[in-house]
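Structural prep section.
Before we set up the soaks we want a predicted structure of the protein with zinc ion in place, mainly to decide which crystallisation condition to try first. Input record follows.
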Amino acid sequence: MATKRDYYEVLNVSRNASEEEIKKAYRKLALQHHPDRNSGNKAAEEKFKELSEAYEVLNDPQKRQIYDQYGHAGLKSSFGPGGFDFSRDFTHGADLHDIFGDLFGGAGGMFEEFFGRTGSRRGAADGSRAARGADLRFDLEIDFEAAVFGGEHEIILPVSETCPTCNGTGSEPGRHKETCRHCNGHGVVVTSSGFFHVQQDCPSCGGRGEIITHPCRACRGTGLVKNRRQLTLKIPPGVETGSRLRLAGRGEGGVRGGPAGDLYVMLHVRPHSLFQRQGNDLFCEVPVPLDVALLGGEIQVPTIEGWASLKLAPGTENGKLFRLHAKGAPGLGNEGPGDLHVRVAVEVPKHLSGAQKRGLKEFMDTCTADQYPERNQFKKHAEEFLEHRK
Ligand SMILES: [Zn+2]
Ligand SMILES: [Zn+2]
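Run finished without errors. Recording the tokens verbatim:
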């Protein structure tokens, strides 16, 4: 495998670039290398994947920090053993249509146009002049529970859809359009100057190849109407911040018979009160009563599969770490689940009564020095250190 390029280099930004600068750089390059604009160009496709990967990391403050500190190696665990996988867009097969239902309801979300209008005129050559709809990006915040257990999320997507009145032609139904005389219906004109032939959109018809004599009233001739589409997103278990659902054909509608664009839903998982997540591993701090730490016993730990019990040996120290194999977040696709890391947090009882204090004092008085090996060791080292003091 080729060595990975530095993400900052890929986006052509400095290491201290602001979020805004990163976003801007990405948009500019993504537009340039988007597969829809470079049909069949393998190099552009690779470049686009590289860009998307770099952006996904640098646009996420947490991932960016890990990358800054540990480089590509630091991100291996969060992207699975093979590193970043562009195909994790759930584009495969039947899932795609399952992701959307047709339920109604409301929830917000930040919305923006992702790549702008990526439609390319498939040219004068085939004479179709169809334009594919723009790809759209929708940012969705979900709860931790939905990320690990999966769930449904209702969103309202403001989207331009193919005008149903004129079927995206932009022309009043029943009215014929006239072939543009300026470009003979090709949509493009070629001007020559010396050795150069410059092909550009026909200025007369705007590249349509046709003149609309009677614009459709529903869409004012644009072929698109604004709509608020209500969708239910099915979120597969195991997603995390940065996961992206790609919904083919759910972006902006196409015009003049062009296909609709795709919708990309970028997921952002809200922090949780019990669990932190790193890749598919979960971390949880469990309060343990003083007597259980002293005498040993069982504690109950919440996991994705329900309560799990954990045996503590007598004399368990505060901060001790346990690793519960495969009890972390479920992996996506073929990834197995991560581990659950449990950290013991010994909780000392508060608001002791007089009788409790006396009882404790009585117990402490019975303890001998050799019951505190660490304290003895500490004292010894401290004294050795201080002997050097002049
Ligand atoms: Zn229309
Ligand atoms: Zn024309």
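Observations: The chain has three domains: 1-86, 88-177+212-271, 277-387.
Flagged for discussion at group meeting.
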